[in-house]
Structure formats: structure tokens, C-alpha cells
């Protein structure tokens, strides 16, 4: 659940947001009482016990020390807590200003709402959310991987969680592309904490989708990715961008440096074809490694010719194709320490525009002309011939894909 979910919970209607509304999508993983911070000597050690995502509750009057409260909030942001709740009688106006400045949700709890009751409500919601995640994971596994005995029962189960499988539905994959490097650079080896990161990222994805599409999705963790099943009519190009920005904002707050890419499969109105949508989303992500552009959302429907290339499972066939068209050029570069392959690839990606190519390579136009003449003599054929251009461009895409190690 997120801090925004607290405000939508009817049982917590008396809870008020005082500040930090820009952090309302912070994910809550558990509640932690912060009253032990009344002993200032515990300040540093206290935050060593946090793992991120905690909602801190303060029921003690020591937080009337304004500067100390600011230090608590700043330290909380540093350790990625979800938010802070204080009793109404201890609330100071400046606390709201601190919260707004730090984008840290600050809730005020009236006397009529006991801390123990709030704790029970939030913990129950967290447990229910965990149970829902398990149920949706079973449904998704049945649709995409393990198979199912009754399509009617599966459709009924999906509808219970807000998805109408009679409508056009599609699959997208949100892949944490640098997850291993992120763990290594942050020296994270604890399996429990790694699972917490994945669970938080799952929530970020859910929140991002639901805030843009306005409806629920089915989502589950699969390795270093989140697999999402959703009704396609709820999303459009601009909504995908908004969804990506929302996920990125939450990810950078909680896990700075963790990056992700989104692959989107086509929509289908039959359950049996949703596995195809999943495979298309996978292929769309693989295409990222065949192109120079740093695109963060890739649609299978936009791949064109390359969607066919990505369905070739024979790496040897790919290598043969690549060698046939640019093999001699690669050999020449290797033997002569030149960069004619780079020159030709940039020339093709610049739509055969010599001036643009020369600018990108930081060379004179005459130098480019000399290189292109050399390239023509090596690869043979006319660089203005459309068939030759398609073959060369395709060969470079395959080379990039093979070099990425994804084949």
C-alpha cells in the first residue's frame, strides 16, 4: 500500500494529511513506532534498524523540539521511510513546512483515533495486499506459463481483481535492467532485503499503471522484472509516458540508480493469445539491445522488420547474415585499427546525410567522403541502393544484438 491509500481508507477517515503531498505514492511496508527517539542518544542507531518503507508513528510530546523533529524527518528521507504520523496535540505548523520541503508525507492523528487502532488497520491492509499479490500471481502464471483447466473460471477470477478478459488485454514487462549491478554497487546481498526491493518495485509499477489507466491491473514479480496484464483501452502513448515517469520518480526516491525499461506487447481479446503478448513484450525489450537510441518504452508493434529478426532463435544464422554484409568491414577495422564500421553505421542511422554524419563523428566532410569511398570498395555495391542499405542496416542491428549477449 502507499501513503495515498491511507487517505482512501474509510476506517482512517479522521487521519489528515498536513504536508508532503508530493510523496503520497511512497510505498508503506510496515509501521514502526518512533517514540524511542525521545532518547536523543539513540538517534543514529535507530535508523540503522530501518530497511525503508516504514510509516513512523510518534505519540510522544518530545517532537515539540522543532529542530530535532526536522532532523528526524531529514534522516527519514535519507533512509527512505514512507511517511510520518504525529498526534494532533504535538503538531507544529513548521512540521508541515518541513514535510513539503522534503516531499515526505506527514499525517496528523486526532485524539479520537488511537495509535493501536491505526496500527491494526494498516497491518491488516498490508496482509490483505500480500494475499491479493499471491492470488494474482497464480492467475498470471496460469494464463502465461502453466496453463489452465477452465477458461471460464480463470476469467471469473480475473474479474474479481478488476480485469475483464473478454476485452482487449495485453502484457507489458517492466524490467530492472541494471538490477545485478545495482545490488553489487550498493553491496546488497541479504536475500530478504532484495525481495523487499522487488516487492516495492512491484508496488511502484502498480501505482504507476493505476494512476494513469484508472483501473486495476494484474501484476507479479518474475526474476528481475514485473509482468503486467492490463486492459489495453485504458492506456495510450501519453499515458505510458506518464506511467513511466511515475514509476521512475518513486524508484529514484527509494532506490537511487536503479533503472528500468518497459516492453509492451500487442492487445488480444482471447485468453489463449495473451501468452503471445507476453512473448512480444519480451522481444520488444530485446530490441533495445539492437538499437542505439536510448528508448525507455518499446512497443512490439513499432519494431517492423526487426520483429521478424527477433524470432530467429538460431544465433549461427544471425552471425552468418552479419558476416555476409559487414564481415569484411569488421575484419578491415580489426587489422588496420580503423573505425569504418562506426562510420557506416552512423551514416545509415543519419539517413545517408553526409553533413549530419560528419558532425556526429567530429570530422571534416572530405574525410567522411574518403571513408565512404573506402567502405564502398570493401563492402561492394552502391550505398544509395535501397536493398543494399536495408541489408547493411539490418546487419548492424544484428551485430549490436549479438554483442549485447542477449542472443
Give an overview of the whole structure:
With 407 residues, this protein is α/β, with parallel strands linked by helices. Helix content is 53%, strand content 12%. The protein contains 16 helices and ten strands. The chain has helices at 3-8, 43-48, 66-78, 93-102, 115-146, 151-160, 179-185, 191-213, 237-254, 274-287, 305-309, 315-336, 340-349, 354-361, 365-379, 386-403, and strands at residues 16-19, 30-33, 54-58, 83-87, 106-109, 169-175, 218-222, 225-231, 261-264, 297-299. Strands 1-5-4-3-2 form a five-stranded mixed beta sheet. α12 packs across α16 (386-403) and α13 crosses α15 (365-379). The longest helix is centred in the first third of the chain and has 32 residues, at 115-146. It starts with a helix and ends with a helix. The model has no long low-confidence stretch (mean pLDDT 87).
Average pLDDT taken over every residue: 87
Tell me how many strands there are: 10
Number of helices: 16
Helical amount: 40-55%
Amino acid at each position: 500500500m502507499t501513503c495515498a491509500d491511507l487517505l482512501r481508507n474509510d476506517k482512517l477517515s479522521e487521519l489528515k494529511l498536513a504536508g508532503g503531498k508530493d510523496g503520497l505514492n511512497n510505498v508503506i511496508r510496515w509501521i514502526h513506532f518512533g517514540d524511542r527517539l525521545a532518547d536523543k542518544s539513540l538517534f543514529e542507531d535507530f535508523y540503522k534498524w530501518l530497511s525503508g518503507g516504514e510509516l513512523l508513528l510518534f505519540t510522544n510530546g518530545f517532537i515539540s523540539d522543532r529542530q530535532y523533529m526536522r532532523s528526524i524527518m531529514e534522516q527519514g528521507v535519507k533512509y527512505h521511510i514512507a511517511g510520518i504520523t504525529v498526534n494532533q496535540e504535538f503538531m507544529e505548523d513548521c512540521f508541515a513546512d518541513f514535510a513539503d520541503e522534503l516531499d515526505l508525507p506527514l499525517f496528523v492523528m486526532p485524539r479520537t483515533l488511537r495509535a493501536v487502532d491505526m496500527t491494526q488497520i494498516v497491518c491488516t491492509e498490508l496482509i490483505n495486499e500480500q494475499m491479493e499479490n499471491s492470488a494474482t500471481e497464480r492467475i498470471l502464471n496460469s494464463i502465461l506459463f502453466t496453463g489452465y483447466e477452465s477458461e471460464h473460471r480463470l476469467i471469473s477470477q480475473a474479474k474479481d481483481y478488476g480485469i475483464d478478459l473478454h476485452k482487449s488485454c495485453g502484457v507489458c514487462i517492466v524490467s530492472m535492467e541494471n538490477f545485478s549491478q545495482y545490488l553489487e554497487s550498493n553491496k546488497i546481498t541479504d536475500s530478504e532485503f532484495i525481495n523487499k526491493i522487488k516487492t516495492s518495485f512491484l508496488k511502484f509499477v502498480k501505482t504507476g499503471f493505476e494512476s494513469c489507466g484508472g483501473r486495476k491491473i494484474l501484476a507479479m514479480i518474475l526474476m528481475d522484472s514485473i509482468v503486467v496484464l492490463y486492459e489495453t483501452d485504458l492506456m495510450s502513448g501519453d499515458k505510458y509516458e506518464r506511467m513511466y515517469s511515475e514509476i521512475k520518480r518513486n524508484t529514484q526516491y527509494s532506490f537511487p540508480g536503479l533503472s528500468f525499461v518497459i516492453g509492451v506487447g500487442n492487445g488480444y481479446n482471447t485468453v489463449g493469445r495473451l501468452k503471445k503478448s507476453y512473448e512480444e513484450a519480451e522481444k520488444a525489450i530485446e530490441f533495445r539491445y539492437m538499437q542505439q537510441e536510448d528508448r525507455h518504452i518499446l512497443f512490439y508493434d513499432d519494431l517492423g522488420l526487426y520483429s521478424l529478426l527477433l524470432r530467429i532463435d538460431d544465433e549461427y544464422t544471425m552471425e552468418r547474415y552479419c558476416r555476409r554484409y559487414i564481415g569484411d568491414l569488421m575484419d578491415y577495422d580489426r587489422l588496420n585499427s580503423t573505425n569504418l564500421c562506426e562510420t557506416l553505421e552512423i551514416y545509415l542511422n543519419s539517413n545517408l546525410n553526409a553533413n549530419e554524419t560528419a558532425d556526429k563523428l567530429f570530422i571534416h566532410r572530405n574525410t567522411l567522403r574518403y571513408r565512404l569511398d573506402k567502405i564502398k570498395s570493401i563492402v561492394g555495391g552502391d550505398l544509395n541502393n535501397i536493398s543494399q542499405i536495408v541489408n547493411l542496416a539490418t546487419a548492424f542491428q544484428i551485430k549490436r544484438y549479438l554483442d549485447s549477449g542477449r542472443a
